[in-house]
Every structure is written in structure tokens, then in C-alpha cells.
Amino acid sequence: MANESRPCPCDIGDRFDYGGRGQEVQVEHIKAYFCKPSASTDKAVIVIHDIFGWQLPNTRYIADMLTTNGYLAICPDFFVGQEAWKPSNDWGTFNEWLKTRNAGKIDKEVDVVLKYLRDQCGAKKIGVIGFCWGGAAVQHLMLKNPHLKTGVSLYGVIRHFDDNSNLLHPTFFIFGEKDDIIPLEQVTLLEQKLKQNCKVDYEVKIYPGQTHGFVHRKREDINPQDKPYIEEGRKDMINWLNKYL
């Protein structure tokens, strides 16, 4: 039973009723959702899901949005068959659940996906975006992986990474002003560290009044007050990818 006294802030949001334009593929030991644009391209984006996993329609909606902007998009199952978090789960068990799903330990899977994109899809320039858990994974990859060109971390949980400033690639950080998981003082500290240590281009942007997950977990049609910020976040994400891919 869900812990009503302390609901998971990730539960704030809407589940999209969306089927997807792409297809599910097997990439070595990983299942993935894959979608390609109508015109051929050598630019690809890896989409890293949140705690709700690779099958969440919201995340596939964003992957398809990338393809309408000319990118190959792939959303692998970075939990590699382990069960995704469910809104009905007891939030009190979340930390135990998270121990076996470390956003900083996805390097093996990322290497497999990069090889697939290069060898099977002809991708030459590859970026990464991620939401929440996936946003933290983007932070990790921007610090560690030399083969990616750029990244967009959407409300990535900063506290998972102490060394979060010496980025290898241009990185865009999206945060909500009213995010219960990521206090603004953490964002301020991140900005200070980046200013001191970062040698590549970066941007940290805070969207007024927005809660955790707003770019992919809120529907514009039933959150009219948030619609401008949802659209702005998505546009900013695409513009950043366009700039560096």
C-alpha cells in the first residue's frame, strides 16, 4: 500500500495515454524502445527513463518528439529487466528499491547502446537526455563518458553525485523552482561548483513554479498554468541538442 503520509514527489504528474510511433528492439542483453525520423540522419539521442521505467508512455512521447526533430531516439531499459517503480508501491521502501538501481552504474549498458547506434544505425554524433533518475545518470555520463557529445539533465537528483562539476561535454540542467526532491540550495551549490571547475559550456535553468517532473510528467491540456513552462523546457532541450549535435 502506498504511504499516504509521505507520497513520492515523483507521483505528482500525469500518465500520458500514448502508444508510441517506434518499436521495441533487443540490443544484446537490453530491451529498448527505438524510433527513427523519416529522413536518414547520423545524429542520435539516448533517452534515460525515470524510476517508472522504459515503458512509461510519457518517456516514449519525448523520444518520439526527438524523432520529429530529426534525431534517432532510443530509450533502453536501464533497469535491465528489474521491475520499475509503481505509484502503488510503499514510498517507505523506496531507498531499498533504489540500492539495486544505481544511476551511476549504467556504463556497461551505455557502451552496448552506443555500439548499436554506431554500428547498426550509422550514428556519428550521439547525445543523451534523462529525467529524474535518468537526469542523475546524465550527470554521471557527462563526467565519465568520452563518446557522447552533449547531455540534457532534467531534474536529475544532484545529491547522488558529489563530483558533479568537471564536465567532459556541454550540459544543460533543467530544474523546477518548487521541486520537493531537489532543493534550490542544491542547485545553487551545483552552479557554484560548475563556475569554479567546469571547462565546457553549460547552463543551469530554473523554471518558475514548477514541480518535479514537469517537462515529461505533466499534460499541458490539464495543467494550463504550467503549459508555457512545459513547452519552454521541451524547446530548450531540443535547442541545446541542435546546438551541440
From TrEMBL:
Gene: Cmbl_1
Lineage: Eukaryota, Metazoa, Chordata, Craniata, Vertebrata
Localization per record: Cytoplasm, Cytosol
Keyword Iron: no
GO cellular component: cytosol
Pfam families assigned: DLH
Single GO MF annotation: hydrolase activity
UniProt protein name: Carboxymethylenebutenolidase homolog
Presence of keyword Cytoplasm: yes
Species the sequence originates in: Onychorhynchus coronatus (Royal flycatcher)
InterPro entries for this protein: AB_hydrolase_fold (IPR029058), CMBL (IPR042946), Dienelactn_hydro (IPR002925)
Family: Belongs to the dienelactone hydrolase family.
SUPFAM superfamilies: alpha/beta-Hydrolases (SSF53474)
